[in-house]
Amino acid sequence: METIDLVPDSERSGLIGTLPRTLRPYASLMRLDRPIGTWLLYWPCAWSVALAGVRDEWALFAWLLLGAFVMRSAGCAYNDIVDRDLDRQVERTRLRPLASGRVSLKGAWALVVGLSLIGLVVLLQLTAAAQLVALFSLAPVAAYPFMKRITWWPQAWLGLVFSWGALVGWPAVTGEFQLPALLLWIGSIFWVIGYDTLYAIQDIEDDALVGVKSSARALGDRARLGVGICYSLALAGWAAAIWAVRPDGLALLALLPAAIHLTSQVARADPKDGTGALALFRSNRFTGLLLFLGFLAVGLSSLD
Fold it and tell me: Is 35 inside a domain boundary?
């Protein structure tokens, strides 16, 4: 029988609360009530398609959004499988479905497999070059949950994984891998390190208790400076990607709205304010939109 004390508030209300009771723990495993992760995984995919000068491939945006949703959901479930023992020791995560025993290990693996099969359908919509690049992401994705036990910078590994869509979108449009995709990926990696450092600020105390490493712990009071450096390097990478597509100083102005927004994040970041840092982290879905509009403008203009 379900123990009411072990059910988080998110499963009693909102989107998950409208589902049948038996499905709610699985929806929690997928973080169905927190779409921010899907958007952050999706934006590099969309940027790459946009910068490549999408022509007749507008459906790619929808396919890649579906892919981002199912693979992020599968990734969350897989992460919880790996971290189930650690999650029981952390106040913020102890009520997760696996940690609290509301979902069995077998059930969690079944969810991962089912979501991955939907991801396979999305993969088959891409060009052969894009499929190959996407498949190369599986190894770093599988390794990610273990990084916080190994390195003080698991955020860097997350950057490799969450930015992979930048490598996929370009060949999905052009049929081949080219330099702008690589530059876009590099910029996105630093963006991820920056925003995930903000996210990690809220867990500094719990992470220290259970021995989990993070960039927020490594940087300490210098977290704001670290985030600022990462965002600056991200903008440099994105500027190089734009220049590779359209070597025109005016084209770089496409980054200005996002640059202002990221600068505002850095100015407001406080390593001792976990709640504020979480809000800044979430605001990066808007950063992604600003960048998408800029890359789309540059990509379409390059077709002239």
Answer: yes
